[in-house]
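FAQ: What does the model actually see?

It sees only this:
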Amino acid sequence: MTVVNADNSPSVNAATRAGLALWLRLKLARDVPRPSSSPPKTTLPTDRVKIAAVQWNADPVRRVQDWSERVQALFRQASRTHCHLLVFPEYLPLSLLGAVMPSTNAVNTLTDTTIRALLRSLAPATFRHWYRWMSALSRQYRIVTVAGSGLTVHRGQLVNVAVGFDADGVERMWQPKWHPLPDELRWGVAKGQPRPLDVLNPWGLCTMVCNDASYYESFRMAEALQVRIATVPIADPDPRYTEGKARRGCFSRVQDVPMVGVVAASTGRLFGLRLTGKAGIYLPAELTPDGTGVLAESSHPVGEGIVSAVVSLTQVEEFQRDYQARHPVPPPEFLEALYQFEED
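And it is asked to produce this:
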């Protein structure tokens, strides 16, 4: 049942939340990845890696199958163009809530308390569905996949977690968001616990969630762990995209701390938030043919599709060695001690 608070905003009681959660689980249960013939196993390259970054339309879906069909289409596109690594954006599973949630206008009137309760009740089911599909499709298409990130309840806390799978569909990275945005904090999203970055070798691949990439310490820790590819799933709640602001994140970090930076972006309208952003693949400016630092980037800050480029990890590693000889990096232990979280 929906009731009205003293400020005339709707509230959803526990019984209604439980009913919505059951309804959502039933809908998701009908959309199960079915095994199909997979490409033959191939040895992943250790030098020239083709990377694809996804720009996603995050508008809520009414049919669960619409979501999975679009995700699979992106895998097919990456496979047809012989990509080895596919990176999805932040909050990819939340579009699934459109299958049971009311219209955006109704959601806009919910209180932060009600949103917190709904996310704790509903988000874990979308997380499990997303996780299952990403693992299956990584294995089916033989593509290393940074699946983006999703909300789930972990150890009693609502957290925003990025997950990565190898080409066998096995989880290799589990990276919580360290620095939730103000909206997320109001909705009860907890700060991820300090932990070393998960690194997937032989590429030296890691992931950082959205706002975490704006902190230099994150990239310094990645550098100390010999990371060569940093992937950054984002969902930027900024209705007016500007290149200058966008460049303050991953693009600027890889100019200061040389490595490959890959941004995947959720865009569109997601329950009252207007998201903008471009998928892109970035390098230190000296390593790009035109000196811009941009290898590939979406042409518009809203939409859906893939951008891709080939990077030479040997070239990146040689550049890193030369750069580090001139700018020595502190050991990981020093950086982890430096990178402490303060209570608000």
